[in-house]
Amino acid sequence: MSTLTCPEFTHLDADIIADFNACLQENIEEVEYCINKLDECEDHELVHELFRAMHSLKGNCRMVLLNPFVVVTHELEEIVSEMREGKRHYHELYGSLFITIIGVMEGLIYQLAEIGECRKDVLEEINQLIIEVRKTEACTTGKDLEVLEEVAVKLVSIQSTALNLESPNETSQSTESSTAEQLDKSEVTDAKSNEQKEENIKYFRQLAIKLDSLSIYRQGRTDDSLKLCEALNQEAGNLVDAQQLRAAVYIHDIGMAFIPAKILNKEGKLSREELIVVKSHIQVGADLLSSIPGWQAASDMVQQHHERFDGSGYPKGLNGKQINPGAMILALADTYLAVTNERSDRSYKRNLFSAVTLINGESGGQFDPELVEVFNETIRKLYLSPS
User: Fold this and answer.
1) pLDDT digits (tens, 9 = 90+) for 7-40
2) Given this chain, do its domains 1-166 and 219-387 carry the same CATH topology?
3) What tens digit of pLDDT does each residue of 341-375 get?
4) What burial letters (b/e) apply to 226-262, b meaning 16+ CB within 10 Å?
């Protein structure tokens, strides 16, 4: 693992970095808008707009001396340029490539601004993948689509480690470190944690709201999920820290934004490889949280929210009380919202009583029986009690 510091960027005035971040968000929204429209219908003017948005993104990165990010954005821009010239045809796989890579870049830039370093090797890896795509013939053979599918799988693996700065070969802290030194570090961390965590929360919410806008889920889904999770936690006697739970709610499904639309919208059974891609979505959010100091508990919740009480879940097959209660709260809320027609790909809607029946049927299976009882009481208070 290699890290990138970019002191030319991190030493800029805070107001300049804030202005850049605002422009970055606008650039990304422009790119996403063009891609969403192109997914509906290929249009040459939209390709021009996409090129301009990509060019603006590159220019803004250059302006604040984020040269390694300029290199990656330039390669993406070149692909769009080839589309303008008729050398390539737009396909939704290209859209997924653009959104995924720009999403990873956004996270790395945020990490660079917050803690002063990010994963240099990740930038190099995604740049190499873009070069692989650019090397393939497109219009005459369609080879580019085959390569894009392979790249999509590789990107999932990259996403899962993109924001993780902890090296697997890193040695533990020397036992010779004095107690006084450790306390000093703890005091410094505690002193800045409250203010920093609130800033982190604002960013996490921005990501969640953006996910709501991608049509994977309905608008307002984040707020409904947060309301139900907080109510469940309170009814259970505040089993987990409220701030950690809020972060987990915002981030737990962020990896879904990086799954190719071809997989998300597929009718029928997913292949083994496609299932691996879908299941990997939890790692994106878990790694993002674990890479930022102070959010390990939230990361654990995200990592485990697809574990099952009976041990048949993923990724580690945890069971019973091995599962973080915050993860089980997330799972309960997700299931309730999903079966009441929360996903855009549902062709039906279950009413409240049907959803409650389904969840109770999984007591001891998917869900902790004690938390199912908490869920029942919470639903009564939220939706059935007289106002």
Assistant:
1) 999 888 888 888 888 888 888 889 988 988 888 8
2) no
3) 644 444 444 578 888 899 999 999 999 999 999 99
4) bebbbbbbebbeebbeebbbbbbbbbbbbbbbbbbbb
- In sequence order, the 6+-apart residues with CB closer than 8 A to the CB of 66 are 6, 9, 109, 112
The angle at the Cα of 58, spanning 54 to 60, to the nearest 5 degrees, equals 115
Domain ranges of the chain: 1-166, 219-387
Q: Which residues contact 51 (CB under 8 A, 6 or more apart)?
A: 77, 80, 81, 83, 84
Model confidence band, residue 302 (pLDDT cutoffs 50, 70, 90): very high
In angstroms, the CA 162 to CA 367 distance is: 31
**Residue 163 confidence (pLDDT):** 58
Q: Mean pLDDT of all residues in the chain? A: 83
Packed helices 92-115 and 120-135: angle between N→C axes, nearest 10 degrees: 160
Sign of the torsion formed by the C-alpha atoms of 224, 225, 231 and 232: positive
Residue 291 has which token pair?
């890479």
Return the amino acid letter for 133.
V
What average pLDDT does the segment 27-55 reach?
89
CATH topology assigned to domain 1-166 = Four Helix Bundle (Hemerythrin (Met), subunit A) (1.20.120)
Domain made up of 219-387: CATH architecture: Orthogonal Bundle (1.10)
For the chain, strand residue ranges (E) read: 3-4, 118-119
